[in-house]
């Protein structure tokens, strides 16, 4: 069975998360995007875990669905064209801050559990070690290897995936507090790590420059803190819709991996807020080669630059740019539909103008990701939405303009040249 999955999201109990980020809105958001499997996020938080138990019921082995009465109410907010079954997988993100090999380490890891009972045991063990109530993504003074041990003791069927592995501040390979290899972090348990999350600021080609990552599946998720961002990065499976099927598909050692794992859908990594080197206060954004030439100091204030994901990849890469392993995982760049409409109509992506056009598009064409990837351009044109077909064509052909992100500033991806939309409007008026 082919389906799209977003395996890393949060909940209303996470810091800086939307107040409406509940299971109902996870379901609605997944439906509008065309996602068949979505993570619950934050199952370690007691109040959220209680909601999971209250509102979800078992579906296929190891997966869950909304109770019928709840999903029926949710479907009132979803066009018929987007209504489909949505499944949930138990997932949480743990922030570990600890000392190892004489250095403070800060990394985030994703944990997946096959059932409520196992998740409850795992939560109980973490609760004895630290505060899991203060945030949906708890901060624990727990070595990542020990976290993996606790998870495996809870259930050998569960699995752990290091999150956004290149983010400077909180990741396993991050420049500020990470390691130089997966093995350095997880030691003798490294074989249990069969997948890695690339994060918003990196993509498959960047990760393929590090040969030590070749043996692990590279996944891509939204890390959404609100319904709006669900599915901005996602994964494509072609496997049995169940916990064990997903786990097997992610493991390259599985004999069917090439058939069951179909790759990722990704934002352009330049859109991530830690892609390039830079200094936000001075408005400085530099390519790693430029920052290296300047001793990694800001050319304006002479303070240290925040070194981005691309810099860190350059530091650890043992392959030059453009050189990849013999078999490169499939990936496809996308630009969220709301961002495309925002550019076309020159309005914010969350404005009523853009929301009306978005609603029209999904009502007539179906889920967002299908529109971006598969829907024929002629059919998109038939909606009457100004320039949407042209914008999607350019996105698919990678005819885009990039202003990369740096030091916490999100990058911008545009499909039209400055002033081009107004010129097209004037030309069409004359006709």
UniProtKB/TrEMBL annotation:
CDD domains associated with the record: PfuEndoQ-like (cd19067)
InterPro entries referenced in this protein's UniProt entry, alphabetically: Pol/histidinol_Pase-like
Highest taxon of the lineage: Bacteria
Gene3D superfamilies: Metal-dependent hydrolases (3.20.20.140)
PANTHER family: PHOSPHOHYDROLASE, PHP FAMILY (PTHR40084), PHOSPHOTRANSFERASE (PTHR40084:SF1)
Name of the protein in its database record: Polymerase/histidinol phosphatase-like domain-containing protein
Organism: Desulfonema limicola
């Amino acid at each position: 069975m082919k389906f799209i999955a977003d395996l890393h999201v949060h909940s209303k109990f996470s810091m800086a998360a939307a107040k409406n980020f509940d299971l109902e809105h996870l379901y609605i958001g997944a439906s509008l995007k065309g996602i068949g499997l979505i993570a619950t996020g934050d199952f370690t938080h007691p109040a959220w875990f209680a909601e999971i138990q209250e509102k979800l019921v078992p579906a296929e082995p190891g997966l869950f669905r909304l109770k019928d009465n709840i999903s029926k109410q949710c479907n009132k907010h979803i066009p018929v064209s987007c209504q489909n079954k949505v499944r949930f997988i138990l997932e949480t993100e743990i922030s570990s801050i600890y000392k190892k090999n004489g250095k403070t380490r800060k990394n985030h890891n994703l944990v997946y559990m096959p059932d409520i009972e196992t998740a409850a045991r795992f939560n109980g063990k973490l609760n004895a070690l630290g505060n899991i109530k203060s945030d949906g993504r708890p901060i624990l003074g727990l070595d990542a290897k020990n976290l993996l041990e606790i998870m495996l003791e809870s259930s050998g069927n569960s699995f752990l995936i290091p999150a956004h592995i290149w983010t400077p501040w909180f990741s396993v390979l991050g420049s500020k507090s990470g390691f130089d290899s997966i093995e350095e972090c997880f030691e003798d348990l490294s074989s249990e790590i069969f997948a890695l999350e690339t994060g918003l600021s990196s993509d498959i080609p960047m990760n393929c420059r590090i040969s030590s990552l070749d043996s692990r599946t590279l996944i891509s998720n939204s890390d959404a803190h609100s319904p709006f961002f669900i599915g901005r990065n996602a994964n494509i499976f072609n496997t049995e819709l169940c916990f064990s099927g997903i786990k097997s598909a992610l493991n390259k050692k599985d004999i069917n991996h090439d058939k069951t794992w179909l790759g990722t859908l990704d934002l352009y990594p330049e859109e991530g807020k830690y892609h390039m080197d830079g200094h936000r206060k001075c408005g400085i954004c530099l390519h790693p080669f430029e920052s290296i030439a300047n001793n990694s100091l800001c050319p304006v204030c002479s303070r240290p630059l925040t070194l981005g994901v691309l810099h860190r990849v350059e530091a650890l890469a043992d392959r030059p740019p453009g050189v990849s392993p013999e078999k490169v995982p499939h990936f496809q760049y996308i630009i969220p539909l709301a961002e495309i409409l925002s550019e076309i109509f020159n309005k914010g992506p969350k404005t009523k103008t853009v929301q009306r056009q978005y609603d029209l598009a999904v009502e007539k064409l179906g889920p967002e990701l299908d529109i971006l990837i598969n829907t024929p351009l002629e059919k998109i044109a038939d909606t009457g939405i100004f320039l949407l077909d042209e914008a999607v064509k350019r996105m698919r052909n990678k005819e885009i303009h990039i202003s990369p992100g740096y030091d916490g500033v999100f990058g911008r991806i545009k499909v039209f040249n400055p002033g081009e939309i107004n010129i097209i409007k004037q030309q069409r008026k004359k006709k």
